[in-house]
Amino acid sequence: MNSSAQDDVAALFLAHSDKKLEEMTGYLEACVRQLSDEQVWRRGGAHENAVGNLVLHLCGNMRQWILHGVDKQPDVRTRDAEFETGVNGGGMSASELMELFRGTVAECRTAMEKVSAERLVERTNPQPPRSGEVSVLDAIYQVVGHVQQHVGQIILLTKQMVGTDLDLTLPRKR
Question: Is 165 in contact with 103 (CB distance < 8 Å)?
Fold first, then answer.
Protein backbone atom coordinates (compact mmCIF):
# COMPACT_ATOMS: atom_id res chain seq x y z
CA MET A 1 0.00 0.00 0.00
CA ASN A 2 1.43 3.38 -0.97
CA SER A 3 1.79 6.24 1.48
CA SER A 4 -1.28 8.08 0.17
CA ALA A 5 -3.47 5.00 0.60
CA GLN A 6 -2.09 4.46 4.12
CA ASP A 7 -2.93 8.04 4.98
CA ASP A 8 -6.45 7.58 3.58
CA VAL A 9 -7.04 4.41 5.60
CA ALA A 10 -5.69 6.08 8.74
CA ALA A 11 -7.91 9.11 8.19
CA LEU A 12 -10.97 6.88 7.70
CA PHE A 13 -10.21 4.86 10.84
CA LEU A 14 -9.62 7.94 12.99
CA ALA A 15 -12.68 9.76 11.63
CA HIS A 16 -14.88 6.71 12.28
CA SER A 17 -13.47 6.32 15.79
CA ASP A 18 -14.11 10.01 16.45
CA LYS A 19 -17.66 9.73 15.10
CA LYS A 20 -18.42 6.71 17.31
CA LEU A 21 -17.17 8.45 20.45
CA GLU A 22 -19.32 11.47 19.58
CA GLU A 23 -22.35 9.24 18.93
CA MET A 24 -21.90 7.32 22.20
CA THR A 25 -21.60 10.61 24.08
CA GLY A 26 -24.99 11.61 22.68
CA TYR A 27 -26.56 8.31 23.70
CA LEU A 28 -25.08 8.56 27.18
CA GLU A 29 -26.31 12.14 27.58
CA ALA A 30 -29.81 11.07 26.51
CA CYS A 31 -29.78 8.37 29.19
CA VAL A 32 -28.33 10.40 32.04
CA ARG A 33 -30.73 13.30 31.35
CA GLN A 34 -33.60 10.97 32.21
CA LEU A 35 -32.11 9.75 35.48
CA SER A 36 -32.08 11.36 38.89
CA ASP A 37 -28.83 11.54 40.83
CA GLU A 38 -30.15 8.70 42.99
CA GLN A 39 -30.87 6.54 39.93
CA VAL A 40 -27.39 7.20 38.53
CA TRP A 41 -25.92 5.49 41.61
CA ARG A 42 -28.56 2.75 41.98
CA ARG A 43 -27.34 -0.84 42.00
CA GLY A 44 -29.51 -3.93 41.78
CA GLY A 45 -27.10 -5.77 44.06
CA ALA A 46 -23.50 -5.93 45.18
CA HIS A 47 -22.61 -7.75 41.96
CA GLU A 48 -23.81 -4.87 39.76
CA ASN A 49 -22.38 -1.52 38.76
CA ALA A 50 -24.37 1.68 38.82
CA VAL A 51 -24.55 3.93 35.77
CA GLY A 52 -22.24 6.32 37.63
CA ASN A 53 -19.63 3.61 38.11
CA LEU A 54 -19.76 2.73 34.42
CA VAL A 55 -19.26 6.39 33.46
CA LEU A 56 -16.27 6.70 35.82
CA HIS A 57 -14.91 3.41 34.46
CA LEU A 58 -15.18 4.64 30.87
CA CYS A 59 -13.39 7.88 31.75
CA GLY A 60 -10.60 5.95 33.46
CA ASN A 61 -10.26 3.55 30.56
CA MET A 62 -10.19 6.31 27.93
CA ARG A 63 -7.69 8.29 29.96
CA GLN A 64 -5.41 5.26 30.38
CA TRP A 65 -5.59 3.82 26.87
CA ILE A 66 -5.69 7.00 24.76
CA LEU A 67 -4.34 9.86 26.85
CA HIS A 68 -1.63 7.72 28.48
CA GLY A 69 -1.10 4.94 25.93
CA VAL A 70 -1.45 6.99 22.76
CA ASP A 71 -0.76 10.60 23.79
CA LYS A 72 1.92 9.66 26.35
CA GLN A 73 0.39 11.63 29.22
CA PRO A 74 0.98 10.38 32.78
CA ASP A 75 -1.14 7.41 33.87
CA VAL A 76 -3.38 8.76 36.64
CA ARG A 77 -6.01 6.03 36.66
CA THR A 78 -7.22 4.53 39.94
CA ARG A 79 -9.36 1.71 38.56
CA ASP A 80 -10.70 0.41 41.91
CA ALA A 81 -12.11 3.85 42.76
CA GLU A 82 -14.20 3.75 39.58
CA PHE A 83 -16.20 0.88 41.05
CA GLU A 84 -16.10 1.84 44.75
CA THR A 85 -17.58 5.32 44.27
CA GLY A 86 -21.20 5.55 45.36
CA VAL A 87 -21.26 2.15 47.08
CA ASN A 88 -22.14 3.69 50.44
CA GLY A 89 -23.95 6.71 49.05
CA GLY A 90 -22.53 9.86 47.62
CA GLY A 91 -20.90 10.17 44.27
CA MET A 92 -20.94 12.88 41.67
CA SER A 93 -24.20 14.34 40.39
CA ALA A 94 -25.46 13.25 36.98
CA SER A 95 -24.47 16.61 35.50
CA GLU A 96 -20.96 16.38 37.02
CA LEU A 97 -20.55 12.87 35.59
CA MET A 98 -21.55 14.06 32.13
CA GLU A 99 -19.19 17.03 32.37
CA LEU A 100 -16.35 14.63 33.25
CA PHE A 101 -17.29 12.24 30.43
CA ARG A 102 -17.63 14.99 27.80
CA GLY A 103 -14.29 16.49 28.89
CA THR A 104 -12.52 13.13 28.75
CA VAL A 105 -13.96 12.35 25.32
CA ALA A 106 -12.93 15.81 24.08
CA GLU A 107 -9.36 15.27 25.31
CA CYS A 108 -9.25 11.86 23.62
CA ARG A 109 -10.63 13.20 20.36
CA THR A 110 -7.97 15.94 20.39
CA ALA A 111 -5.25 13.35 21.05
CA MET A 112 -6.54 11.17 18.20
CA GLU A 113 -6.43 14.13 15.79
CA LYS A 114 -2.64 14.19 16.24
CA VAL A 115 -2.17 10.51 15.30
CA SER A 116 -0.55 9.94 11.90
CA ALA A 117 -0.75 6.81 9.77
CA GLU A 118 2.78 5.94 10.87
CA ARG A 119 1.84 6.23 14.54
CA LEU A 120 -1.07 3.78 14.21
CA VAL A 121 1.40 0.90 13.97
CA GLU A 122 3.64 2.05 16.82
CA ARG A 123 3.61 -0.10 19.94
CA THR A 124 2.38 1.12 23.31
CA ASN A 125 1.61 -0.45 26.68
CA PRO A 126 -1.30 1.55 28.10
CA GLN A 127 -2.14 -0.77 30.97
CA PRO A 128 0.92 -2.58 32.26
CA PRO A 129 1.05 -5.40 33.16
CA ARG A 130 -2.54 -6.24 32.16
CA SER A 131 -2.67 -5.36 28.47
CA GLY A 132 0.85 -5.94 27.25
CA GLU A 133 2.03 -4.10 24.17
CA VAL A 134 -0.53 -3.18 21.53
CA SER A 135 -0.48 -0.94 18.50
CA VAL A 136 -1.82 2.61 18.76
CA LEU A 137 -4.58 1.46 16.38
CA ASP A 138 -5.43 -1.38 18.80
CA ALA A 139 -5.56 1.05 21.73
CA ILE A 140 -8.00 3.37 19.95
CA TYR A 141 -10.10 0.45 18.73
CA GLN A 142 -10.23 -1.00 22.26
CA VAL A 143 -11.51 2.29 23.66
CA VAL A 144 -14.21 2.77 21.03
CA GLY A 145 -15.46 -0.79 21.49
CA HIS A 146 -15.31 -0.49 25.27
CA VAL A 147 -17.31 2.74 25.23
CA GLN A 148 -19.93 1.17 22.94
CA GLN A 149 -20.18 -1.89 25.19
CA HIS A 150 -20.76 0.03 28.40
CA VAL A 151 -23.00 2.69 26.84
CA GLY A 152 -25.14 -0.24 25.66
CA GLN A 153 -25.35 -1.42 29.27
CA ILE A 154 -26.27 2.09 30.40
CA ILE A 155 -29.01 2.24 27.75
CA LEU A 156 -30.47 -1.01 29.08
CA LEU A 157 -30.23 0.12 32.71
CA THR A 158 -31.89 3.42 31.81
CA LYS A 159 -34.72 1.69 29.95
CA GLN A 160 -35.32 -0.51 32.98
CA MET A 161 -35.33 2.42 35.40
CA VAL A 162 -37.55 4.72 33.36
CA GLY A 163 -39.78 1.95 32.01
CA THR A 164 -39.76 3.03 28.37
CA ASP A 165 -37.80 2.88 25.16
CA LEU A 166 -35.47 5.82 24.69
CA ASP A 167 -35.90 6.19 20.89
CA LEU A 168 -32.17 6.78 20.47
CA THR A 169 -32.04 5.82 16.83
CA LEU A 170 -35.30 5.65 14.89
CA PRO A 171 -38.59 6.22 16.66
CA ARG A 172 -40.78 3.13 16.29
CA LYS A 173 -44.49 2.58 16.53
CA ARG A 174 -45.45 0.82 19.74
Answer: no
Tell me the DSSP string of 32-85. HHTS-HHHHT--SSTTS--HHHHHHHHHHHHIIIIIITTT-------HHHHHHT
The whole-angstrom distance between residue 12's C-alpha and the CA centroid of its chain comes to 20
Neighbours of 142 (CB within 10 A): 18
Is 46's pLDDT higher than 90? no
Please answer whether residues 76 and 63 qualify as being in contact, where contact means their C-beta atoms are separated by less than 8 angstroms. yes
71 in Cβ contact with 111 (< 8 Å): yes
Q: What is the DSSP letter of 72?
A: -
pLDDT at 171: 67
Q: Is the pTM of this model over 0.85?
A: yes
Classify 135 as helix, strand or coil.
strand
Does residue 168 contact residue 155 with C-beta atoms inside 8 Å? yes
SS3 call for 134? strand
